[in-house]
Design goal:
It is built from 26 helices and four strands. By secondary structure, the protein is mainly α. It has five domains: about 1-35; about 40-130, Leucine-rich Repeat Variant; about 130-205 and about 225-245, Leucine-rich Repeat Variant; about 245-355, Alpha Horseshoe (Leucine-rich Repeat Variant), CATH 1.25.10.10; about 370-465, Alpha Horseshoe (Leucine-rich Repeat Variant), CATH 1.25.10. It has a two-stranded antiparallel sheet. Strands 3-4 form a two-stranded antiparallel sheet. Helix 2 packs antiparallel against helix 3, helix 3 (about 60-80) packs antiparallel against helix 4 (about 85-100) and helix 17 runs antiparallel to helix 18. The radius of gyration is 30 Å and the shape is extended. The termini are far apart. The model is unreliable at about 35-65 and about 200-245 (pLDDT under 50).
Length: about 475
């Protein structure tokens, strides 16, 4: 009797233990799926779940599980929109855009957030998703938000979405107190095919009219048809005398004052504004921002603004920033801007960076290609042949190929035949230069290589085809 009771108790304990283990396994499995959704591959997992929804026999139950995961994921990403790290914010926006439609309601909900960066990032995501549900909320932001930068971003987003329901509100925004908001509203209307000559809805020409299917083209106020090109030319000419440009000076002074704001988003907006206005007087204040602002992306935007202004006086300060700024992302932006400006004074510093700063090396090479100064060829050849770091030699090879100077052909052939680590890049560069002297060496390499590299064959074919 006692023995039977003991066996019964042991059996009961075993059953309870198995049940507990099974429950823990189920909980762990479900939690793992949620954790996976939080990982870098989470969006692929969500998409897989959405595809499964369409075929699963237990459709309602399955969909509920995935909708819950998506909801959790969207909430997690929304929280990251106010992270102190700008890169985290950008990644969150990118992932929300990839989720798409399911993220729209949550993004709309935070358009009235007290955090300006949350509003800005939400607007950015909604613009890229392009969902029509965002139009009315974005109109409300554009007309009523107290921060001019937010209103500007909302106008830009409406232009990207392109829904004509926003037309009247954009016309209203042409009277906004801030120049950059008015300019963005004008650009948004342009994207919709509506060209504004002055500062009101009375001064427009239409690229298309939804209410008139037989509209032959752009129509001016006399009823005559004009081409899209001519309407843009008229717009550009008229804009020089429009009211919005008459008060550029007031907006310029406002933006300069905002550079000293304690709020980093206002400094960032001011920097963008100065780049758009293009006044050379902004060069020195922007350089000061680049050197001293504690927020890295404000310094980055200030560097870009200098490039938009394009004043030659910025070259020497940009070179100093390229060589000495502690943040590599700012050094990268300086290299990009110097390449766009095309000033030969930047060649020597860019070559130095190519040799000595592995974080900026590629951008420096691209800048040298853009400047295309013949004086850069010999130093690059010297790097190609003698630098001990194969990655530096590789970058020099890419730059020489992009510049296309025939002086690089023989050195590149030597590298093709003797530098195994850089031979592929040498072949690509020779293909870009297109000199027939490279045909025989390329042919020999192809014939003597057990495993044919596609780059060698493509380079040979490219040169042979150009003869």
């Amino acid at each position: 009797m006692l023995e039977d009771k003991r066996r019964y108790m042991l059996s009961l304990a075993l059953i309870l233990a198995v049940s507990l283990v099974f429950s823990l396994v189920c909980v762990y499995s479900y939690r793992s799926r949620y954790d996976a959704a939080e990982s870098e591959d989470s969006l692929e997992l969500i998409e897989e779940g959405e595809r499964s929804d369409e075929t699963a026999e237990t459709d309602d139950q399955h969909r509920f599980g995935w909708e819950t995961i998506i909801s959790w994921r969207v909430s997690s990403l929304i929280e990251k929109l106010e992270d102190g790290d700008r890169d985290v914010q950008k990644k969150a926006v990118k992932k929300l855009v990839k989720i798409g439609g399911p993220a729209v309601p949550a993004l709309i909900d935070v358009l009235d957030s007290g955090n300006i960066m949350v509003r800005i990032n939400a607007i950015d995501a909604l613009a890229k998703i392009g969902d029509y549900r965002a139009v009315e909320p974005l109109i409300d932001v554009m007309l009523n938000d107290e921060v001019f930068w937010v209103r500007m971003e909302a106008a830009e987003a409406l232009g990207e979405i392109g829904d004509l329901r926003a037309k009247d509100a954009l016309f209203q925004t042409l009277q906004d107190e801030d120049l950059v908001v008015r300019k963005e509203a004008k650009e948004a209307l342009r994207k919709m095919g509506i060209y504004v000559f002055g500062g009101s809805s009375n001064d427009v020409t239409l690229d298309h009219q939804n209410d008139a299917d037989d509209s032959p083209g752009n129509i001016d106020d006399t009823g005559d048809t004009i081409s899209e090109e001519s309407s843009e030319d008229i717009d550009d000419n008229m804009s020089e005398e429009s009211p919005e440009d008459a008060d550029d000076a007031r907006s310029f002074e406002t933006c300069i004052e905002l550079l000293d704001s304690d709020r980093h988003w206002e400094r960032e907006a001011a920097v963008k504004c100065l780049g758009e206005i293009g006044d050379p007087r902004a060069v020195e204040p922007l350089i000061d921002v680049i050197k001293h602002d504690e927020i890295i992306w404000v310094s980055e935007k200030a560097t870009i603004a200098l490039g938009e202004i394009g004043d030659p006086r910025a070259v020497e300060p940009l070179i100093d920033i390229l060589l000495h700024h502690e943040q590599f992302m700012v050094r990268e932006k300086a290299a990009i801007v110097l390449g766009e400006m095309g000033d030969p004074r930047a060649v020597e510093p860019l070559i130095y960076m190519l040799k000595n700063d592995y974080l900026v090396r590629e951008k420096a090479a691209k800048a040298l290609v853009q400047i295309d100064d013949p004086e850069a060829v010999e130093p690059l050849i010297d790097i190609l042949l003698h630098h001990e770091d194969y990655m530096v030699r590789e970058t020099a090879t890419i730059a020489l190929g992009g510049m296309g100077d025939s002086r690089a052909v023989e050195p590149l052939i030597y590298v093709l035949e003797n530098d195994r680590l850089v031979s592929k890049e040498a072949a690509i560069a020779l293909g870009e230069i297109g000199d027939p002297r490279a045909l025989e060496p390329l042919k020999e390499v192809i014939e003597n290589t057990p495993v044919h590299n596609k780059a060698f064959i493509e380079a040979y074919t490219k040169i042979e085809g150009s003869r």
